[in-house]
Structure formats: C-alpha cells, structure tokens
Amino acid sequence: AAITGKEERESEEPLVSVEIIHGDSLIEVPNLRDTTYDVAFLDPPYGVDVEQTHRSSSAWEEMFMDDKDSAHITTRLVLERLYPKMKENSMIFVFAAHQFSTLIQSMMESVGFDVDDVPLIWYRTGPQGPTMQVRKWFSRAHETIVYGHKGLKPILHQGNNVIPCDVVTPGKKVHPTEKPIGLYLELLRRVALPGQWLVDPFGGAGTAGRAALRAGLNATIIEIEAKYVGAARYLIHGEQPVQEDANAVPEPGREDEAS
User: How far does the signal peptide extend, from start to end residue (predicted)?
Assistant: First the structure.
C-alpha cells in the first residue's frame, strides 16, 4: 500500500539537532566536519526541460531552466566534496530524473561510492498532473533514486526497490520539487538509527530535516535560496519566514498538519 499523509505520521521523538545553513553547497560542504554523516540525501537541480515534461511553472522555470552541463558539474563537485564528510560506513541517496540516472551513478562511483546498478524507484501515487505533451507521451509516475555506500552501512530493514508513496499535491508544495516526508521516513527506517547524522546539501524547504527530527536523527541542511531557508526554519524550528519581497515563501499549509 502507498504511504499516505496519515500513515506517515509518527509520534515525535525528543528534539535533536538540525542545523540549517543558508549558503552555496559548493562552499559550505567543504566546511563540514570530516567523517561525520551516516546518511546523505541529494535532490540536485538538473536543468530539466519543463516545457517537455512538466506543466508550466514560473517557480520551476526560475530554478531549473539552468544549463544542464552547469547543473551536472555542480552535482559532481558536491558529491566529490561530500565524500570525505561521510562516515566510513554510510549511505547516500540521490534523486535523479530517469534520463540522468546512469550519469548520476557514474558520478557517484567516480568519487568513491559503491553504487547499486539497480536504483530504487519511487512509485508516485496520488493525484498528479500529466505531461505537457499529453498527445505524445504517457504520464510519468515514478522517479529513480540512485543509492550507494561508502564502505558498508548494513540495511536494518530489508524491502524491495519499489516504494509507493503519495506525491505532495501542488497546493501543499513549498518547493517546486518537494518530495513527500513519508518517502524520506521510509528510507531512514530501512537504514538509519536514532542519534545518527543526516546531511542534505540541496535542502529546499527542509523535508529531510523534518524527517530527521521524526526519526530521531541529527541533520545538517544546506540551501542557497533565502526564501526556502526561511520556509525550512519555519517548518523545522517554528521560525516565521521574513517576507521582504514578492518572492518570499508564504506561511505554508502542510499536508500532515491537515490530516
């Protein structure tokens, strides 16, 4: 069964440390302590062509119509700089559009990670829109998650590689590529223990940090966009975002709060 908003809710663990860093991950990752992190989540900006694969979205276009080569160079450099920050036995999960999954696997292997040739599949359940070219292409209902190890971090709870989980509906999204917290919680349930450390260099609105709190993990979240840093601080620490301009993120309504 798919993980729904209600099913993903868990009793809150005692508060642990979640650090939210406003900055460029290319600059901030080298400043992190070496051999610190047990789990890494990355959801990099890939420069996806929104006109071909997604509904028109000014927010999406603003962030992701970047040059693909530049986006991939950034991802490669962040992976390279992140590797020494991971513990000797740790795991990494990288969200990747299907067309880029092989490239991401190659990048991860080139910096030292041992990567499974078969990725995880997030089967996106719940309401979701069609592609822009509805007369030509079928709707996309999955996303790949390329994963691997530095050393060997044993799997705690085995499961298959297809994970059904409801999407975050457009009206609930704070960040254009926001993933459901239930997906992060399921991955953490499989591989992480309370008290361990998580890092997310492309933190968005802080979903990985929220999941870390629920699972009893410490976390470091890095995000370059001020408006999403504000949203993450509000959602994780209860700080009200400062809305100084029209691009500021409004106080978000959360799917799990409405459940």
Answer: none
- Alpha carbon 188 to its chain centroid, in Å, reads 12
**Helical H segments across the chain, by residue range:** 25-28, 50-53, 58-64, 68-82, 101-111, 181-191, 207-215, 226-237, 255-258
- Name the fold adopted by 18-239: Rossmann fold (3.40.50)
Does 229 have pLDDT greater than 70?
A: yes
For the range 133-137, what are the long-range contacts, defined as Cβ-Cβ under 8 Å and sequence gap of 24 or more? 133/52
Q: Which runs of consecutive H residues, i.e. helices, occur in 121-164?
A: none
Distance CA 208, CA 192 (A): 13
3-state secondary structure of 112: coil
Instruction: Look at residue 78 and tell me whether its pLDDT is greater than 60.
Output: yes
Q: How many CB atoms lie within 10 A of CB 12?
A: 9
Task: Decide if 164 contacts 1 (C-beta within 8 A).
Answer: yes
Contact in structure between 107 and 80 (CB atoms under 8 Å): no
* 180, pLDDT greater than 90: yes
